[in-house]
Fold this protein.
Amino acid sequence: MTCKECRKQFVEALYGELNAARRAEFEAHLQGCAACAAEYRRLGQTLRIMDRREQPRPESDFWNAYWDKLAAKLDAETAPPAPRPPQRETPAKVLRMFGWPRASRIAAAAAALVLGILIGRYFFNTGGEEVPPAGSRETLLQPTALEVRAGDYLEKSKVLLLGLVNWEAEAPEATALDFPRYQRASRDLLQEAGYLKTALEDSRQRRLRELVADLEVVLLLIANLEAENDLSAIEMAKTGVDRRGILLKINLEEIRRAQPLPRPGRTSGKPSI
Amino acid sequence: MKDEKELIERAQRGEIGAFRELVERYQKTVYFLALDLCGCRQDAEDLSQEVFLKAYRFLPNFRGEARLSSWLYRITMNCFMDTRRKKQLPTLSLHSDAPGENHPAELSLPDPAADPSASTRSDELQRHIRRALDRLSPRERSVFVLRHYQELPLKEIGEMLEIAEGTVKALLFRAIKRLQEELAIYRAEV
Ligand SMILES: [Zn+2]
């Protein structure tokens, strides 16, 4: 072992992270090399000095008050939003405002686009060519008031998510995004999600309930993101949105397979997502 | 002790009581890590509370693949780096001191001939250790604290900070060398 190789192992040796074979080799070198041995000893002495560091121990009062202080901060953060209806504008610059790297913005935007298309295709019959299904199927597919309300929630969430898609198309001189309003819209939708999750109790509505819950997570991320450049939060939110985006896609695929909803005029030749 | 997984799931569903139990379970862990990193009680309290605020916000993202403690450690490290970036704290260095410039009185080196009382010498040592840690870069300090005081293996530190294990070793070596320079006066005592 050369001196250079020996010194490369100092850190692992100091913290006992060398395996037996490497340790033996390391110690054999120290036996025969006064310079390395002296340097290693000095480093060890420094660590022993650092061991003498004392930490002040807070009194029990400190720990007793810890939660109350935190709870006050949580309250301030999660204060109920002003009673304002969610806006239908698509806040295009939101991802840029979050400071996401370009590649991540595109990935998130793509995920949102997939969501939007899937939700649009399978929950909302907005296309002009749509013909209501006939006969017994019509009765079967007649949505309940609750399902209509859930549909409204999904539609609004879709609009919000699609806002992420258009960020690049918007001209730089366009009106700046009203970020607080966007977050308020997310929070309004979150409240609605809370209601829907409880109300959709029928076992046949399980998938719809799960979709509501999955969307809720994405909305929560949007509602809680800070507009300022909060790197760690952004990093975590990014992971969450990506992951949830995939989950949503799978979830919606399942719904599609379970309820094919064949429509005259678009039964063939169209690629399915 | 309640099952942690169940507590996490309840907190993820927005149950504040469950989140409170998690905070009470980990407040000391997070606070003392923050204290190692910041070196002062007020900053440590602020940092640790920031960590739990973030944890609350992002708990729905917690996958349960990692331990909750590792996840909280990671948030703590990120928050610490963020605050350092925001503050852009000027780091002192022996090498950048102008020649002849006096150190502040509280940082003055002990005079071995003065034979002060044991408690005074201990206070001196504590101040010098704090100063030595303050002079490390945030990354050096993070790596040193995680390995030396939190006793995490080098590999785990690399994963937590998302840097290669080789980089962890290099940072740690540099940190110890700098501490060695700062604390050379005490070496004869150990
Ligand atoms: Zn050697």
